[in-house]
Write a structure and sequence with these properties.
Layout lengths: L10 E5 L8 H14 L4 E5 L5 H5 L11 H6 L4 H4 L1 E2 L6 E4 L8 H6 L7 H5 L2 H7 L3 E5 L6 H9 L2 E7 L8 H14 L5 E8 L6 H14 L12 H5 L7 H4 L4 H22 L1
Parallel strand pairs: 1-5, 1-6, 2-4, 2-5, 6-7
Antiparallel strand pairs: 3-4
This protein binds adenosine-5'-diphosphate (ADP) and magnesium ion.
Magnesium ion binds next to α1.
Length: 271
């Protein structure tokens, strides 16, 4: 595979959508692997207590391992919890354990509760880890964990499933992003809309894709992620589809999507 250019400035991208099952985790880990396999240094932050991103990256996340929970509490730094994934040495992951489930409530009484992840991801920390991209996998809610992710990020990527009700609830997500922009993180932008689980045999998938493109214009990536059994099987082997079945359509699509994100970012920065 070809190498991607390193971004001029490090990019922190939050993958969010308060709906479950739309492909947040799948997109986070596969885009991360796509960037890493094309030569970039990537850090995934698993911010969902379910720990699905950790599982997919083959990273231990049983209770007791150093995780994002201790980071949010301020007990440890990112460097102490980040471990290499099973896929590649330049793809790191900070795992999430079930301890994180209680943190939405614990965070409420903490100082600077919305900015704890941003504090942990401050430039000198990421500089030391030498990462080009940080991708944050959010839980399926708009609670304090997702707010922390949006406050810590430069950009948001929204995966949208090409299914019935795909656009339902999107208004709520967009107004939450606006709230974060106006009160907590003015430099946050929506950079990427990714259509997932596209089934070319159905009219519906085309309809949804058309509506999304009409609404979001060129924020929507040209690359569309197909519905693919390989993509859904890979996490069961602690893998992303890029290492599980590199020649598959699913793998190619995430590789393309990662390339598109990397190239668009650079166009924007030099524009
Ligand atoms: P979320 O993180 O938004 O809850 P997931 O990424 O966990 O969503 O995806 C939900 C389910 O759909 C998972 O079982 C996953 O394996 C499956 N899935 C995601 N993307 C695809 C795809 N392109 N093709 C087939 N299955 C997919
Ligand atoms: Mg998930």
């Amino acid at each position: 595979t070809m190498q991607l250019p390193r971004p001029d400035r490090r990019r922190i991208m939050t993958v969010a959508n308060q709906k479950g099952g739309v492909g947040k985790t799948t997109s986070t880990v596969n885009l991360a692997a796509g960037l890493a396999l094309q030569g970039l240094n990537v850090l995934v932050i698993d911010l969902d207590p379910q720990g699905n991103a950790s599982t997919a990256l083959g990273v231990e996340h049983r209770s007791g391992v150093s995780s994002v929970y201790e980071i949010l509490l301020g007990e440890i730094g990112v460097a102490e919890a980040a471990v290499p994934s099973k896929q590649a040495g330049n793809l790191l992951c900070v795992p999430a354990t079930l301890d994180l489930a209680g943190s939405e409530i614990e965070l409420v009484t903490m100082v600077a509760r919305e900015a704890r992840l941003r504090e942990a991801l401050r430039p000198e920390v990421l500089e030391k880890l030498d990462v080009d991209y940080v991708l944050i996998d959010c839980p399926p809610s708009l609670g304090l964990l997702t707010v922390n992710a949006m406050v810590a990020a430069h950009e948001v990527a929204i995966p949208i499933q090409c299914e019935y009700y795909a656009l339902e609830g999107l208004g709520q997500l967009l107004s939450n992003i606006e709230l974060v922009q106006s009160h907590l993180n003015p430099s946050l932008s929506i950079s990427t809309i990714l259509l997932t689980m596209y089934d070319g045999r159905t009219k519906l998938a085309d309809q949804v894709a058309g509506e999304v493109r009409q609404h979001f214009g060129e924020l929507a990536l040209r690359t569309v992620i197909p519905r693919s059994v390989k993509i859904s099987e890979a996490p069961g082997f602690g893998q992303t589809v890029l290492t599980y079945d590199p020649g598959s359509r699913g793998a190619m699509s995430y590789l393309d999507a990662a390339r598109e994100i990397a190239e668009r970012g650079i166009e924007r920065e030099t524009a």
